[in-house]
Each structure stands twice: as structure tokens, then as C-alpha cells.
Design brief:
- It is a single chain.
- By secondary structure, the chain is an all-beta fold.
- The chain has a domain of about 190 residues.
- Helices cover about 0% and strands about 60% of the residues.
- It contains two helices and 20 strands.
- Strands 3, 4, 5, 6, 11, 12, 15, 16, 17 and 20 form a ten-stranded antiparallel β-sheet that branches.
Amino acid sequence: MPTLAHLHPERLYLDLVQLNSWHKNADYKRINLQTYIVDRTNLQLEPASNLKGEVSMGIDYGHNKLSVTYFRERMESGFRSTASYKPYTYTNYDASAIDHAALTAPPDIALLPYTIDTVLRGSSRTTNGSLTRKEGVEFVLTTERFKGINTRFTLNGAWFRTLYSNSQPVWAQVSEILAGTSLANLYAARYVDDNIYIREQLTQNLTADVYLPALGTKLSATLECTWFYAHQSGRKDGRPIAYMGIDGIERSYTEAEATDPYLKILTQHYSDALFKRYVEPFHCHLNIKATKDFKHVQVSLFADRIMDYMPDYYSNGLLVRRTAASPYFGMEINLKL
């Protein structure tokens, strides 16, 4: 559900500098601003909703159990901050007409030449424009406790793939300067694709626990493994579908605009290196734990990351050296009343 901060965000105070005259005598300095107050009330925002499908299968054989779950989830109405643009007019005073040597007071703006200028400025609000797609498989295998070694094995793991993107076209500006003019003051463009992130990983834990009834103690060792972790930015079409000028009118972006000296800069170009898939290969570490039961007290000692295997690897031609986190130790005490 949207919060009050989403529905009724603080007003935006947009200051446009009309004159900024500096003087070494602080009494003769003057700054003049045109301030616009933007009401960002956002009653069009709707609750975010998602659709999730899940299929599970379980098999029991004696005291051995296997369960596998596959799921897919899609949310197209998640919250995200989205920019919108509109033109704002202000008076641009010519500060070069000020004779600083003759000043006996701050300059009088009524005596200065000026032009009426218009610029595009943006404000942001929360919209239902976020897209999240999730897919994965989870599995758990538990064996019987083998009598000869009084040990049970548990294998669990998961494969996950998540895509984050926008579900609505987004407005943005370019920071290019052409012939001394900032295009961010003149144009805003609407793009279908925003940042697209893809994350994927396969993990697995193998636990062996041994029960020693004569000592009332359980020993366990867990091998935590990540078979791979991958991340990638999805490809984007840098050509806008629409644009807006200082008149505030949205127009389609056609071939004519793509060849215009100013408007063609709104088409963004990306290097293929931005969309490469980066994969971190296999690594694992070992955790151990000992639990002792008393009459009303259960005491556990554990050591996490006591051993690890994190070899160096090459990613897109570059050698990546990995350093494991330091092991840490602890104790848990549970009281039974």
C-alpha cells in the first residue's frame, strides 16, 4: 500500500536564478530568484500487486524425503520515483551591465537590461512504474539417520533469477552542451527502456548432523556453496519515443528529429561492454556447530567460515582475486522452563 509520503509528498520549491551579482563588499552583493512551488500530490498512485504461481512436488521413501518447488512471480505495478518535466519562465537580468566600481548599494534590477527565458525543469513523484520478474527452483532432500554412524544428511538449495526494470516509459534529460547551450534546459525525452538489471544464482547447503546419545550432544557441519552468481544489465534502446521542448508539448520522435542537429543528441548510444554478463564461479565455506542438552539448558557453540574455498577466476578477460571473510565464533544458550 502507498504511504502518506507517497500520496502527499512535500512541496517542491524550484528556484531559478535571475541575477547573481557578486561584490567584494558584502553590502553590495545581490541575488534575485524566481521561485515556483510545485504541488506533488499524487492521488493516482495505486497499491502494488503481484501474481505468483507455484508448483510443488514431494516424495517420501522410508525416512527419506525430497521436495521440489518451482515458482514464477510478476509485479508490474511496483513503486518507483519517476520524473516529469514542464517549462518554467523567468527573467534573466544581464549582470554585465553593472558598473561594480560605481556601486554604493546593491544593484537595482529595475535599471538592468533583461530577457525573458524559459527552461525545462523536472520534479519527481512515486508511480506504479516498476517491473519485477522472479523465477526459481527450491529443493530439500533429507535422508534417514544412518545407524552405523548415527548421522543424517540434509541437502537444500535454490536457483533464482530476478529481473528489475520499468513497466512504463520514463522521461529523462541529456547533459550535452551544444554551441554553448545546455540541452537539459531545452529538451526532455521519453524512453521505453530505463535501467534493466538481471540477477541469477545457484546455491546449495549440505549439512551432516551426528547425534551422540551417550553424551547428549549433537554435532553438525554445513558446507555452504554458491555454484555461480551472475549479474547483467539488459540492453536498452537509446532512441526516444517522444520528446518535449520549452513549449511543454509532447511530440513523437521521428526520423526528422533523428537528423536534427539538436534533437539527434537525444538518442543515446551505449557501449556493448555495459551489457556483458558477469559470472562469479563456484565458492564455498564450512560451518561447524556443537549442541549440548542439559536438564533445562541447551548450549551451542559454533564456528562459521572455519574453512573456505574461493579461487581466483577470469571474468571477461580480467583476473578477479577473491578474499574470504574472516571466520567468527559464538555461543547460544536456550533456557527451557
